[in-house]
Design goal:
This protein is α/β, with parallel strands linked by helices. The protein is built from 8 helices and 7 strands, in the order βαββαβαβαβαααβα.
Length: 264
């Protein structure tokens, strides 16, 4: 959550996939900093349709139902932001993810869907946002939410990791093409505890063992990612563009060292 050190009053932000998990944390943090936030998702988020910020006025994010894997839908989300507020300062390409599926048996339909969500959708949203930001005196910023899966082997999620690797290159390329008006950066998040950890890692004991591989002794949280988004969106990093900021608590203890010590 924002602590009041960064104010984004008057700023307008779009957060894709902003109804739950990391996206919801980013949305709430931007709201707390004073920004107007537009979120989107493929389905009606039900009770989370309006995410309420912690301010006394009870400001809420606006929801647009859209499948941003479709370029027209992506453009419609950006258009909703500009129609409501007249400008767009920040796009956070957060929507993404993948269930586990081994490469040998993953269907063409599955691979296409995963790459579309994690690479093409951010591309389409970025194109629409850039078209608006280039015409603004202050320009704007795009922040892509990536994964450390892009930086190492990712058995079981090869299509996802490949798409996230593409997202890093996309970040670097767009930062060159769209400068100086639009800055583009990426956050590659490490192991995150977003609520589904015990189920994914074989219970709380399994999750604790995984967390112990992180030098800082814990997994990251959605608020960790949201805090970095806020830092990048604020006034303190005006020269940062084309960067991939790795948020992983120091990484993972090297497997070869564990093997040398007689560990698994």
């Amino acid at each position: 959550m924002a602590d009041g050190s960064v104010e984004l009053i008057g700023h307008v932000a779009v957060v894709t996939g902003g109804t739950r998990g990391v996206g919801a944390a980013i949305t709430e943090t931007l709201l707390a900093a004073g920004a107007e936030v537009i979120i989107c998702g493929r389905g009606d988020p039900g009770e989370n349709r309006e995410i309420v910020g912690p301010d006394d006025a009870g400001r809420q994010a606006s929801f647009v139902q859209a499948d941003i894997r479709d370029a027209d839908d992506a453009a419609r989300v950006v258009a909703a932001a500009t129609e409501q507020h007249g400008h767009l300062d920040l796009l956070v390409n957060n929507a993404g993810g993948s269930p586990q599926a081994y490469a040998a048996t993953a269907s063409p339909r599955f691979v296409t869907a995963i790459v579309s969500l994690n690479l093409l959708a951010p591309f389409f949203c970025a194109q629409a946002a850039n078209a608006v930001m280039q015409d603004q005196e202050e320009g704007g910023q795009i922040i892509n939410i990536g994964s450390v899966a892009a930086l190492r082997p990712s058995p079981g999620t090869a299509a996802y990791a490949a798409a996230k690797a593409g997202l890093i290159n996309l970040t670097e390329s767009l930062a060159v093409e769209w400068a100086p008006k639009v800055r583009v950066n990426c956050i590659s998040a490490g192991l995150l505890d977003s609520g589904a950890g015990p189920e994914h890692y074989g219970g709380h004991e399994g999750m604790a063992r995984v967390a112990a591989t992180v030098p800082l002794g814990r997994m990251g949280t959605p608020d960790d990612v949201a805090g970095l988004v806020l830092a990048l969106a604020g006034p303190f990093t005006p020269y940062l563009s084309g960067a991939n900021v790795v948020l992983h608590g120091g990484g993972e203890w090297p497997a070869f060292l564990r093997a040398a010590e007689g560990g698994p």
